[in-house]
C-alpha cells in the first residue's frame, strides 16, 4: 500500500511539475488519487483548491507560467492561450497583466476574474505549442489582443513582431479578414496602417507615440532608427528621419542630460548638419507633458521643408 501511495505521489508531482505547479481534478484521478485521499490532501494543505476541478501543489503563489497553465486546464482539453497572454508568450509584449485570455476547448461556466474567455472559434492550424504551452498563432493573438488592448499595446505587439521576423503579413491579412465584425478592428486596423517598414527599429514608447500622432494627422511617415551615413566613416541611427525633408527628430531620455552625452550629441548634430540635415531635439518629458508643442514644432519643420 505504501508503494502504491509513493507511486501516486510521484505521478502527481511529475504532472504538476510539468505544468508549473497546477493540476486538474481529472489528472489527479488519473494519477490514482481517490476522492478520500484528495480530501485529506486539501485538509493538510498538500494541494490548494484554485477553482472547482483545479488545484495547485502546496500553495497559491504560482509563477506566470503556472497561472497560464491553470487557465488552459480550466478551459479543458484543446484550450488555447491568446490575446495578451499569447503575445507575451510570443515575446512581442514585455509582460502579461490582467485576465488571462484563453479560447476554451469546451464550455466554461462562470470563469474566475483572472481568466477572460474568448468565444470565437479556432481552427486547428491556428494552435501551436510554444514554451510548452498551447498558444494561438501570433497574428490571431494580436487580433484577440485588440478586443481589449490599448492602441499602444497593439502597436507594440505589431512592431515587435515585425522587427523579430515573426510577422507573416499574409497570415495577418487572413486573420483580419476572419475577424470581420469584431469591435477590436477599430484598434487593430489603424495600428496595422501605422506599422513600421522593413529595416526599422522602434526603441522606445515615446518614439511610437510621436510617430502615431503624426501619422494620424496625415503627415509623411518617418523612418525609425534607420542608418544615416555622414562624412567619412560617421554613421548614426536617429529616432525619426524624414529623408526627403532632410529632417531628423531626436527624443532624448535623461541620459542626454549628462555632460559627456551632451558633448557627443553636439558633435553628432554638427556632422549631420554638415551632411545637410536639420536636427531637432526634444526631452522625453516634453512628449509626456507637452506633446502638442512637440507635434506643432515637427509639423512646422516638415512644412517649411516642403515649400
**What form results from the Cα inertia axes?**
elongated
Provide the gyration radius in Å: 26 Å
Helix content: 40-55%
The secondary-structure element order is: HEHHEEHEHEEEEHHHHHEEEEEHEHH
Description:
- With 307 residues, this protein is of the alpha+beta class.
- It has 3 domains: 48 residues, no CATH class; 130 residues, no CATH class; 101 residues, 3-Layer(aba) Sandwich (Endonuclease, Chain A).
- It is 46% helix and 16% strand.
- It has 13 helices and 14 strands.
- The strands form 5 sheets. Strands 9-12-13-14 form a 4-stranded mixed beta sheet, sandwiched between helices. A 3-stranded antiparallel beta sheet has the order 1-3-2, sandwiched between helices.
- The termini are far apart.
Short description, anyone?
The chain has 13 helices and 14 strands. The protein has 307 residues and is α+β, with helices and mostly antiparallel strands.
Write the layout of secondary structure elements.
Elements: H1 2-18, E1 22-24, H2 25-30, H3 35-44, E2 47-51, E3 54-57, H4 64-75, E4 80-81, H5 83-90, E5 100-103, E6 115-117, E7 127-130, E8 133-136, H6 138-145, H7 151-163, H8 169-178, H9 185-193, H10 205-216, E9 223-224, E10 228-229, E11 235-236, E12 240-242, E13 247-252, H11 259-274, E14 278-283, H12 284-289, H13 291-305
Helix pairs in contact: 5-6, 7-9
Amino acid at each position: 500500500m505504501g508503494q502504491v501511495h509513493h507511486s501516486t505521489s510521484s505521478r502527481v508531482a511529475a504532472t504538476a511539475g510539468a505544468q508549473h505547479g497546477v493540476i486538474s481534478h481529472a489528472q489527479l484521478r488519473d494519477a490514482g488519487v481517490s476522492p478520500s485521499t484528495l480530501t485529506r490532501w486539501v485538509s493538510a494543505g498538500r494541494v490548494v483548491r484554485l477553482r472547482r476541478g483545479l488545484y495547485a501543489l502546496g500553495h497559491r503563489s504560482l509563477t506566470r507560467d503556472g497561472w497560464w497553465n491553470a487557465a488552459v486546464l480550466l478551459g479543458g482539453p484543446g484550450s488555447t492561450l491568446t490575446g495578451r497572454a499569447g503575445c507575451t508568450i510570443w515575446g512581442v509584449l514585455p509582460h502579461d497583466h490582467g485576465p488571462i485570455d484563453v479560447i476554451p476547448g469546451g464550455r466554461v461556466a462562470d470563469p474566475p476574474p483572472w481568466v477572460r474567455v474568448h468565444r470565437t472559434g479556432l481552427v486547428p492550424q491556428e494552435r501551436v505549442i510554444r514554451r510548452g504551452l498551447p498558444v494561438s498563432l501570433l497574428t490571431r493573438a494580436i487580433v484577440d489582443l485588440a478586443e481589449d488592448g490599448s492602441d499602444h499595446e497593439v502597436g507594440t505587439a505589431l512592431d515587435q513582431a515585425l522587427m523579430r521576423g515573426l510577422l507573416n503579413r499574409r497570415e495577418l491579412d487572413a486573420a483580419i479578414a476572419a475577424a470581420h465584425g469584431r469591435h477590436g478592428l477599430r484598434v487593430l486596423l489603424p495600428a496595422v496602417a501605422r506599422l513600421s517598414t522593413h529595416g526599422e527599429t522602434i526603441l522606445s514608447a515615446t518614439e511610437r507615440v510621436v510617430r502615431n500622432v503624426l501619422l494620424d494627422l496625415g503627415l509623411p511617415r518617418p523612418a525609425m532608427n534607420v542608418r544615416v551615413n555622414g562624412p567619412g566613416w560617421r554613421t548614426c541611427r536617429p529616432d525619426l528621419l524624414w529623408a526627403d525633408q532632410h529632417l531628423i527628430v531626436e527624443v532624448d531620455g535623461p541620459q542626454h542630460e549628462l555632460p559627456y552625452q551632451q558633448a557627443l550629441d553636439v558633435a553628432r548634430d554638427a556632422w549631420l548638419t554638415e551632411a545637410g540635415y536639420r536636427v531637432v531635439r526634444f526631452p522625453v518629458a516634453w512628449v509626456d507633458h507637452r506633446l502638442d508643442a512637440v507635434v506643432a514644432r515637427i509639423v512646422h519643420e516638415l512644412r517649411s521643408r516642403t515649400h
